[in-house]
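Forum: Protein Structure Q&A
Topic: Joint prediction for protein chains with partners

I've read a bunch of threads here and the consensus seems to be that you should model interacting components together rather than docking separate models afterwards. I'd like to see that in practice. Below is the full input, 592 residues plus whatever partners are listed. Could one of the regulars post the assembled result?
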Amino acid sequence: MSALYTIWLRDLTRFLRNRSRIVTSLAQPLLYLAIFGTGLSSLLSGTSSLGGVSFTAFVYPGVIGLTIMFTALFTAISVVYDREFGFLKEVLVSPAPRLAVALGKVASGSTIALLQGVLTLPLAWLLGLPLTLGQVAQLTGIMAVLAAVCTALGLLVSTRLRGIEGYNLIINFLMMPLFLLSGALFPLAGLPGWMNVLVRINPMAYATDALRQVVLAGAAQPGFLAASRLHPVSLDVLVLLGFFVVFLVPAVRAFSKQE
Amino acid sequence: MSTVIETKGLGRDYGDLVAVDALNLEIQQGEIFALLGPNGGGKTTTVGLLTTLLRPSRGSARVAGYDVASQPAEVRRHIGVVFQGPSVDEQLTAWENLDFHARIYNMPRPLFRQRAAELLALVELAERQHEPVRNFSGGMRRRLELARGLLHQPQVLFLDEPTVGLDPQTRRAIWDYLAALRQQAGATIFLTTHYLEEAEDCDRTAIIDGGKLVALDTPAALKATLGGDVLHIRVTDVAAASELLRQRAQLEPRQGPDGLVVEVADGPRRIPELVALLDGAGIAVQAVNLRRPSLEDVFIKLTGRGIRAEAAEASETLGRRGRMGRRERGGDR
Ligand SMILES: Nc1ncnc2c1ncn2[C@@H]1O[C@H](COP(=O)(O)OP(=O)(O)O)[C@@H](O)[C@H]1O
Ligand SMILES: [Mg+2]
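Posted by a regular:
Agreed with the consensus. Here's the joint model:
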């Protein structure tokens, strides 16, 4: 337990020390919203298929998800960096149980990603979507689960690969499909079969689905959310927890066995 | 006394390369043990195996009573390691690096604060302790790594080329500290080095070359195998002198960079006799230099070459001090 906390504390210390990184990752979601929201909504003006909310508001939950995924996957790279710069040796010869170390990495990555996610919530007011305290609490819960899923995925990739280039290659390869097939930019109803399969195995789809249902709860037309959703929020979260376990178990196992 | 480190037929391969092979060691509690060898000899691999960072390809090893392959967690609880390569966090300060170490080794906080302050003073980093390590020079980082390895007072301490890049004073201070650690806490110290001066100061020295152990004994016993002293004789006619010494004195002179090199049983007594012999044959003796055999000589005899070509050369022309100083400045950038 104290090992887990120690790993977590170090990563948080490093994160908070890196001011420029915090600032850029704050600017990122704004930029996405501006691009997706303004750019794409001008294309779609006149369509009323979005349940009465603006396209920007429709995209917003996806941007929250994207921010979390980005942060989590690029925080998990710290495992690769630690190996490359030798610090991992210090940890691996210490009495800290490998399980605690791996879980500490997941905890710190998740915390940092969740922090970044929470920082995107004030954008809701900007988009005319005032959130109640209940909504904020629900969103925080969903974001925490998504952050954990993505960090576990990042850890899994990092244990399979040597070197920073390899990690970046895989992560960049994964990130765009995960985002584009998440339903962030378009409703998932009526997709062709093969794409539907890809959506079903994409954790980002369940996260976006859950986040959108909570964010737009008061704003969208009553029938719209029920008709366009994948699952009720609780089921989405359950599926996400399933992904977490599926990524975490082999990641921890590989981490514990590494030389 | 009990055996603290024991290996049986220990070996490790990297693909086709045999990095360490058939290593049999037995190291007692309280020993300061040096593994001496050239670069690529297998020292770091051996440390990796003993500290559970690398899994053995063959054989077994026990450290502090536990098997490195089947009980790695127990082994880790009893050891401290100073790695050859960098392993500190550059983003954190020196103090934060020590703090991380103390937490992960479950040290009581007051003990940590006391020992951290003590060790930072020892390695002369007290004034810079709250600076991020990325501002540190190579030598400063090395000193921090040393302080960190000593922080939790391990029963068995592994040091992989610990003093590379340190100035002589710091090196001396570290050695005194290690000696005290052994004295007070009964710690066992396993270090690797390619500095012969350092191996001389250990209780026992093993020489490893090409992954294989070629000798293991006290430095004195190793040097005794050379049978006496080494004479460097500078003469005008090297070929004639060599022939004469072979014929009349039954010696086996080698050609050194500075004249002839001969091993003799009792150097101080033989000098007048040999000088008289050469003089009598009309060969002028310009200088005679007597040296006790060093581990370097042992190493050359066992492996047929110097531990480091440039070091071997330097030892002929420079004193021990000068040689050390030069290397350290080279390392501390
Ligand atoms: N990770 C590795 N992969 C492949 N070969 C290695 C690796 N580490 C060391 N070696 C090789 O094993 C041999 C022993 O290396 P090492 O134990 O580092 O020697 P030393 O510490 O005595 O300089 C060398 O030939 C080295 O090139
Ligand atoms: Mg080495």
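The domain at 228-292 of chain B is CATH 3.30.70 (Alpha-Beta Plaits).
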